[in-house]
Design brief:
Chain lengths: 200, 792
């Protein structure tokens, strides 16, 4: 399955739209003006991709060392995310998010559960046993979604030129569903912009 | 410029012008102590106030801290309660799924369990679930899960009141809402807080109004500028500063504790206040105690000062009174208490006043007593006599005065000296005092004593007493080992018959005494009117003498003195003649004593000197003029001047003037007489000793002065021819004079036999009726011209 995912990713990169695609370079800054790492930048284009969306990072949300891993997982809509538990203790993973409410009752090590995410949106994950455990699964309908790096930078290649909507998600964003949305025009030569988040 | 100074002085004197030292001391001490006590009381009050303020501040701060702690605990407990709910899976599920009824019931359940007034759930969308005042609900729609200071609780103020909020986030795991407790900081809460404190402070919740003023939650505006300034200051600084504010409860100590709100600046503050009145109430007893102690101290000080001032001032006041008494002539003995300076002063004062009085008595005694005999003196005597005379007629009494004079006292002084004379007088005084028990003995002066007998006199008493005295003094008196034979003459006058006043009576007694002396001394005489008449006669004679001197009734007669060696008249003795218009010729023996007594002799003698010189100047140059000089004239210090003037004015050579003196001039003391005699001799005037052989006739007089001539008294000359002894005396005198190189003149030669005898004995010159009676001045030159030698 891992190999297949990888293949899908490569397929995306080598789509025919590549000739009309541009690379978007987006910087996200927090309310304090500092680079905001871990924000999810999503570019919605009018034309929906025909092929199923696949991301290179897969659809697994592990529990390791009493933490979710990764902290933010971007998955295409309709993905089934697995919740492998690598800890010796049991976890009770749940979500009250509208995008997906679920409740994985206590399960132990190597006891893998999976959940189908069939609505787009951010799903906040928690563990009813461990308060400090927190993670997000972003269910997206676009292939152009990526997390900002430690410099608050995100590079998305192959974005079709033309009008688009740039959406940025971060838990600290004080907006509906923690998402900011802003229309943008993707030039053929590329798109570069810096988004500064309003908030507290 | 001096006016203000005196004004000031007067002012000061008025301010401190207490009449009594005691008052001044008392006021000074009491004033000083009062000032001290008041100062101490003020310091004590200030300290008490400070102490009260410090205690209240500590108490208020403590209350604030306790309140904070309690709130921290309560917040913690409430947070725990809220957290329990917020973390409940089912609750979170309900919140996440927006299950309103479930949430409501959970919140209600929580509210009951935690025992808070208001509990809410606020979701991220701002929906508030739970019961509570609308404005509170509005206020909490948008709350951060932690506040400015990082805590989860804050105090907010709404129109409905002030609330303390406890916020617990509902995490799923991201925050999907908050559980909020709102505890109203209302009156109940404040009362609970007040009960926490050890002191009855009052707690008030303040919140900031829109216009920036602070007011209490119960809408009673405390707002004034001072409060605003203080609370604003307190919110800015963290320290607890106590202020004194005017609050509805009165002036109070106040401590504002700002309560952290949502934002940086607090919405509310807790004001702990404590009325000054109450704070100081517990010290009131202390204050009253101090005031009482002060008052008691003041009273004690007043009493003490008074006592002290009395202690100091009373002796001084006594001293003052005693000094005043002394000033007025009486004497007050001070009581000497203790041995301090004042006691010594009192002692000294007593000594001093005693001394003053003693001296006063002595002075008084001296004024009224004779210092020699200690008997009353003339002044006292006169007073006594006047008193007796005033009393006598009223009581039908009599007052007798006895004037006494010692016989021959002058001789005692001359022969035995004044000390013996004084001792004699003292003894006489004592003897008289012993004798007279019913009268007053006085010494009037010299050897003159007087006795007053007054009251109910026996008619015979003056006589009997006089006789007693005379008998007593008949025996010689032993004085300093000398037996002195003296006698006493007494004149007696009895008032008011013999004189109505003291002077008259004394004069009468004096006249009687005079008579007694005239009657041979050692007797007493009563005053008789005849005595007064004689005295009047004498006084008239004196007046006539003065008149005679003024009107020139005197003239000089001259009796020649025949020089036996040269058989011619060598000298004329001038003799004073007074021919009064009505009295006729008055004998010198009659008027000379009066002239001597009255001192007129000096003026008369001066006239005689001038007249004799004036007339003698016309005589031949070998004829001298002799002038008799009274001892009284010698006593006059200007005597030699008078002679000098007489000589100068008349142009008579000094050696033609012969002064005749009697031995009596020496009785007054030789020194002065000899000095005058030498002075006269120095001028060239001749000096003759008259009446030699009579009187005291001390031969030493002849040695003391080199007389030019001795005149042998008529009493020797009278019998020189018949009586061998007289002849012997004359011979002796002549021989003596020859030996002393003095001339001799025999007086009163009346017949041939006498002349022969005298010539035979070598007498230088003679004088007498045998040769010539005195002649008028105008007849002198005729007499000189007569062939007198035949007669001789």
């Amino acid at each position: 399955m891992l190999i297949r995912l990888l293949f899908i990713a490569l397929g995306v990169v080598s789509t025919p739209f590549a000739a009309h695609a541009a690379t978007a370079n987006i910087d996200v800054r927090g309310p304090d003006g500092k680079p905001l790492a871990g924000a999810v930048v999503m570019i919605d284009t009018p034309k929906k991709p025909a092929a199923p969306i696949r991301f290179t990072w897969g659809t697994a949300m592990s529990q390791r060392n009493i933490q979710f891993d990764p902290h933010v997982l971007i998955v295409p809509i309709g993905s089934t995310v697995t919740f492998p538990n690598f800890d010796k203790v049991r976890h009770h993973v749940y979500s009250f998010s509208k995008a997906k409410k679920f409740d994985l009752k206590l399960y132990g090590k190597d006891d893998t559960r999976s959940v189908l995410f069939d609505h787009a949106g951010a799903v906040a994950l928690g563990c009813n046993i461990h308060d400090q455990m927190s993670a997000f699964i972003l269910v997206v309908e676009t292939p152009f979604a990526v997390q900002t790096d430690v410099n608050g930078h995100a590079t998305i290649a192959g974005v079709p030129a033309g009008g688009a909507t740039v959406r940025i998600w971060h838990p600290s964003i004080r907006a509906k569903d923690n998402v900011l949305a802003q229309p943008a025009t993707i030039a053929a030569t590329g798109f570069t912009n810096t988004y500064t988040i309003r908030g507290r | 410029m001096t006016v203000p100074v005196t004004e000031t002085k007067r002012e000061r004197r008025r301010l401190f012008g207490f009449q009594h030292l005691r008052t001044r001391l008392a006021v000074l001490y009491a004033g000083l102590f009062a000032i001290t006590i008041v100062a101490v009381a003020i310091v004590a009050q200030v300290m008490i106030r400070n102490h009260a303020q410090n205690s209240v501040r500590a108490e208020l701060s403590t209350s604030g801290i306790v309140y904070d702690r309690i709130w921290a605990l309560r917040a913690k407990s409430l947070t725990g309660s809220a957290d329990v709910l917020a973390r409940d899976f089912g609750f979170r599920s309900a919140v996440a799924s927006g299950d309103g009824p479930t949430i409501s019931s959970a919140v209600a359940n929580l509210r009951a369990r935690a025992g808070v007034a208001n509990a809410f759930v606020v979701d991220t969308g701002g929906d508030v679930i739970g019961d509570g005042p609308a404005d509170l609900r509005d206020a909490i729609t948008d709350l951060p899960s932690t506040f400015a200071d990082g805590s989860n609780n804050a105090v907010i103020a709404t129109d409905a009141g002030t609330y303390r909020l406890i916020v617990a986030p509902i995490l799923a795991p991201v925050e999907i809402g908050q559980v909020v407790f709102a505890v109203p900081l209302d009156a109940t809460e404040m009362r609970a807080l007040e009960r926490l404190s050890a002191i009855p402070l009052s707690a008030t919740m303040l919140h900031r109004r829109a216009d920036g003023h602070w007011m209490s939650t119960d809408r009673t505006s405390l707002g004034d500028v001072a409060l605003d300034r203080y609370v604003n200051g307190a919110t800015r600084s963290s320290g607890t500063k106590l202020a004194t504010l005017d609050l509805p409860g009165g002036k109070s100590f106040a401590l504002a504790i700002p309560l952290a709100g949502r934002a940086e600046t607090p919405d509310a503050a807790l004001l702990l206040s404590y009325p000054l009145e109450t704070a100081l109430a517990s010290y009131r007893s202390l204050q009253i105690g101090i005031a009482l102690a002060g008052a008691v101290g003041l009273i004690l000080v007043l009493l003490g000062s008074r006592r002290l001032a009395n202690g100091i001032a009373r002796p001084i006041a006594a001293l003052d009174a005693a000094a005043k008494a002394l000033e007025e002539g009486s004497r007050a003995e001070l009581k000497v208490e203790g041995s301090d300076e004042i006691a010594r002063l009192a002692e000294s004062f007593n000594t001093m006043s005693a001394g003053i009085l003693e001296r006063e008595h002595r002075i008084t005694h001296l004024a009224f007593h004779d210092s020699l005999t200690g008997l009353p003196n003339r002044t006292y005597f006169r007073q006594q006599m006047e008193a007796a005379l005033i009393r006598a007629p009223k009581m039908g009494e009599k007052a007798a005065v006895l004037c006494l004079d010692l016989d021959g006292f002058k001789g005692v002084n001359d022969t035995l000296g004044h000390p013996v004379g004084d001792a004699l007088l003292r003894q006489v005084g004592m003897m008289l005092d012993d004798l007279v028990k019913d009268g007053t003995v006085s010494r009037l002066g010299g050897d003159e004593f007087a006795i007053i007998l007054s009251g109910r006199l026996d008619n015979d008493r003056p006589r009997a007493l006089s006789q007693q005295i005379i008998d007593k003094f008949r025996a010689p008196i032993l004085v300093d080992g000398h037996q002195i034979a003296t006698g006493v003459s007494i004149g007696i006058a009895i008032g008011p018959g013999d004189g109505e006043d003291a002077d008259l009576l004394l004069k009468s007694a004096d006249l009687a005494l005079y008579r007694a002396k005239q009657d041979g001394r050692g007797v007493f005489r009563f005053f008789e009117p005849a005595l007064d008449a004689a005295a009047r006669k004498r006084r008239q004679l004196e007046l006539d003498l003065r008149e005679a001197l003024l009107t020139g009734q005197f003239r000089l007669n001259y009796q020649p003195i025949f020089d036996l060696a040269k058989d011619r008249i060598g000298c004329f003795e001038s003799l004073l003649r007074w021919e009064h218009p009505t009295r006729g010729n008055v004998s010198p023996s009659e008027f000379i004593p009066v002239a001597e007594e009255t001192g007129l002799i000096v003026a008369i003698g001066e006239w005689v000197m001038h007249e004799a010189c004036r007339q003698a100047a016309d005589w031949p140059s070998h004829v001298r003029v002799a002038v008799n000089v009274s001892p009284l004239q010698f006593r006059n210090s200007g005597f030699s001047n008078i002679i000098f003037q007489a000589l100068t004015r008349s142009g008579l050579p000094a050696n033609r003037l012969e002064i005749e003196i009697t031995e009596s001039v020496f009785l007054e003391g030789e020194d002065g007489v000899l000095q005058v005699l030498h002075q006269l001799r120095g001028m060239g005037v001749r000096i003759a000793l008259d009446d030699f052989g009579t009187g005291y006739s001390s031969l030493s007089y002849l040695r003391s002065f080199p007389f030019d001539k001795i005149k042998i008294d008529k009493s020797f000359v009278d019998r020189v021819a018949q009586d061998e002894s007289s002849a012997a005396i004359v011979l002796a005198i002549v021989d003596l004079a020859k030996a002393l190189k003095m001339e001799t003149t025999a007086e009163g030669v009346e017949d041939r036999d006498q002349l022969d005898q005298l010539r035979g004995q070598g007498c230088s010159s003679i004088q007498g009726y045998w040769f010539s009676r005195p002649v008028e001045g105008g007849a002198v030159l005729d007499l000189i011209a007569e062939p007198m030698s035949a007669a001789a």
